[in-house]
């Protein structure tokens, strides 16, 4: 069996030491390199250089694993001094922006681990490095840079709260810590964005080779599409009920296959989609995606049908092993609450999930691990203790050593927990319907929808536009 390339951080782990040329004095220095894993984060390459001749030294962090499926944009609203202490991971492909200053640190800098305050201090140091020379040769530029340095110093001194600190990373490998985890950070917004060909080329990917690869596989993909048979149907089986069986003789019983751009590399991948109906619930849309070029794959389950007039709250008290085996569907519009540990996952967390109650508890733990890479040995003790307590509780709940209550609050009534006693009443589940408020309707985009008298409004708008055009023509 081959040795593992990236190993967990260990006191016995030996680094790789080699001679390399010093960029400062051009004599031979010593580079120390270690391929390792940061706990609960990613594979990284730690590089340290030291020259005995001139004393020059340098450190660098490079990501050694695969890039994420998406490019990411992390927008943090810095509102107080505590935000300066947030740990950050910046990859070598990441651009830092401060919109209020119209300031940008390009991605040409090396990857690093620092705090927000640390990045701002490094920026000041970089700008000050050649100021003495500029003062003599270019006094006007010197004055402008001095004013800009003062603006950054004002940010550090807290004179400009709030301001925005933005990471734009096409590799998706940058991170800003959420100190409120596992709860939502309302001052931080994370966007997942598709990559452009230019971004892929900047990261070292050859767009020409990618297109050539896809062209060579087009015939193969077309043949597979033509050989579409029953075994291509996505099968959902729960409690011996095959949900993939055709409901009627129309398209509902088939698996549709079409090409869509891959969110990872931007090239065409294969999207499969089928509809299925869950007994005593409603219709679901099951989708799976595979990119033949980069290997990206994903699965997703979405509810079908109309928008419900009311939302629904489902409360399950887990009292036996059978409760852990219940089938469960949590939609994207559903928040999840475990009151025993004051844990709340907002709408959209975990996406659309079809699993069991036990599987949901595992997914919650995996999600917390994935989204909190700074929960390792260097984490804040109180934050680390809080996460450890949550993980321990979830494990005890799965082993039936702890009482657990799961509350699903779905704004669109698109989630369900299986009732094994149907059509009898389920004694361990409480179901409540509720009317959505204005804010919840706004989250769903319902406040701006017009669902009645479409033609009337269109006619009124058209008349108003015509009158406005006439008035403009007369004015001209």
UniProtKB/TrEMBL annotation:
Residues 20-178, 260-419 form the Zinc finger ZPR1-type domain. InterPro entries: Znf_ZPR1, ZPR1, ZPR1_A/B_dom, ZPR1_jr_dom, ZPR1_Znf1/2. GO terms for cellular component: nucleus. Keywords: Metal-binding, Zinc, Zinc-finger. One of its GO terms (molecular function) is zinc ion binding. Belongs to the ZPR1 family. This is ZPR1 zinc-finger protein. The lineage of its organism: Eukaryota, Sar, Alveolata, Ciliophora, Intramacronucleata.
């Amino acid at each position: 069996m081959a040795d593992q390339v990236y190993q967990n951080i260990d006191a016995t782990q030996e680094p790789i030491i080699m001679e390399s040329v010093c960029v400062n004095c051009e004599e031979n220095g010593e580079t120390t390199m270690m391929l390792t894993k940061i706990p609960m984060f990613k594979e990284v390459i730690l590089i340290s250089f030291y020259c005995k001749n001139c004393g020059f030294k340098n450190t660098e962090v490079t990501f050694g694993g695969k890039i994420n499926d998406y490019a990411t944009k992390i927008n943090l609203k810095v509102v107080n001094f505590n935000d300066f202490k947030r740990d950050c991971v910046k990859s070598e492909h990441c651009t830092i922006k401060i919109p209020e200053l119209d300031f940008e640190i390009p991605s040409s800098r090396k990857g690093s681990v620092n705090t927000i305050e640390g990045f701002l201090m490094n920026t000041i140091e970089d700008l000050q490095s050649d100021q003495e020379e500029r003062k003599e040769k270019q006094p006007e530029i010197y004055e402008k840079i001095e004013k800009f340095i003062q603006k950054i110093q004002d940010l550090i001194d807290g004179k400009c709260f709030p301001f925005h600190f933005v990471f734009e990373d096409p590799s998706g490998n940058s991170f800003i810590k959420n100190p409120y985890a596992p709860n939502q950070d309302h001052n931080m917004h994370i966007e997942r964005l598709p990559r452009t060909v230019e971004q892929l080329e900047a990261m070292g990917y050859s767009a020409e080779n990618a297109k050539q690869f896809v062209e060579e596989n087009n015939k193969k993909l077309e043949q597979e599409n033509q050989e579409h048979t029953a075994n291509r149907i996505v099968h959902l089986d729960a409690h011996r009920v095959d949900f993939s069986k055709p409901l009627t003789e129309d398209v509902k019983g088939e698996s549709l296959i079409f090409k869509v751009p891959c969110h990872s590399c931007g090239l065409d991948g294969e999207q499969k989609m089928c509809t299925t109906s869950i007994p005593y619930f409603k219709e679901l849309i099951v989708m799976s995606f595979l990119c033949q070029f980069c290997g990206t794959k994903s699965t997703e389950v979405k509810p079908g049908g109309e928008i419900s007039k009311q939302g629904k709250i489902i409360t399950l008290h887990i009292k036996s092993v059978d409760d852990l085996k219940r089938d469960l569907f949590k939609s994207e519009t559903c928040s999840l609450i475990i009151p025993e540990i004051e844990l709340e996952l907002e709408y959209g967390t975990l996406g659309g999930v079809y699993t069991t109650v036990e599987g949901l508890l595992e997914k919650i733990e995996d999600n917390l691990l994935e989204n909190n890479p700074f929960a390792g040995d260097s984490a804040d003790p109180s934050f680390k203790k809080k996460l450890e307590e949550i993980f321990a509780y979830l494990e005890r709940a799965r082993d039936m050593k702890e009482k657990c209550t799961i509350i699903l609050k779905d704004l669109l009534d698109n989630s369900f927990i299986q009732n094994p006693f149907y059509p009898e009443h389920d004694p361990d589940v409480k179901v409540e319907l509720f009317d959505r408020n204005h804010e919840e309707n706004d989250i769903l985009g319902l406040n701006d929808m017009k669902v009645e008298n479409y033609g009337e409004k269109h006619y009124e708008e058209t008349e108003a536009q015509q009158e406005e055009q006439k008035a403009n023509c007369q004015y001209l």
